Amino acid sequence: MKTRDLIKALEADTARPRLASGIIWPLAGGAAVLVAAVVFFATIGPRSDIGDAMETVRVQFKFVYTLALAASALPIVLASARPGSSPWHLAPWLLAAPLLLAGAVATELIAVPSQEWAVRLIGKNWFYCMMLIPLIGIGPLAIILATLRHGAPTRPIFSGAVAGLLASGLAATFYAAHCTDDSPLFVAVWYTIGFAVLTGLGALGGRLFLRW
């Protein structure tokens, strides 16, 4: 084989995965959102006062927070799937959502009398929050992990954990439309426990299924 033919063959070989990745990730994203939506509407659905609630700052913040978590995890997941690509330079973006939440919690602690802190932190739906976020997110997590297998993640546990964060952000965005506990204190504790479950499952899934 001539050198020129070899170069063309290598270019063609590398072009196919790029094309496939360009197709498979949008399909996977759409499937993940669809699965989360089906589980959400089949089990709990939005709160009855969702229209009025969306006009309040605390409810709006919940969506800002959950979407920020998903948005910060997404580029790391995509980078993890590319062979030879290092996602570590994107990792600091994962601090964006926690910093937003920390600011909201600090504001709540300043604005609300201390005797109300415990009531707002515990809320009314803490048990359902811990259960429903993983329930809504487990399907999207499975889809993301399956799509990562199509790529070549070199750090399977890290890639799986970030996939869990992405699934967490997606699941929590749906759950936030149902949850009537709008305090950042509640979100900081109980949403985070749900995220920890999905992140742990993602790391385990990465260890088991993303190894070369």
What would you note in describing this structure?
With 212 residues, the protein is an all-alpha fold. The chain has one domain. It is built from eight helices and no strands. α6 packs across α7. The mean pLDDT is 90.
Shape: globular
Low-confidence stretches: none
Distinct helical segment count: 8
Order of helices and strands: HHHHHHHH
Radius of gyration: 20 Å
Strand content: under 5%
Mean pLDDT across all amino acids? 90
Distance between the termini: 30 Å
Q: How is the secondary structure organized here?
A:
Layout: H1 3-43, H2 50-53, H3 57-80, H4 96-111, H5 117-122, H6 126-150, H7 156-176, H8 184-209
In a nutshell, what does this entry contain?
77% of the residues lie in helices and 0% in strands. The protein has helices spanning 3-43, 50-53, 57-80, 96-111, 117-122, 126-150, 156-176, 184-209.
Which features would summarize this protein structure in a list?
single chain; 212 residues; mainly alpha; 8 helices; 77% helix; Anti-sigma F factor; NrsF
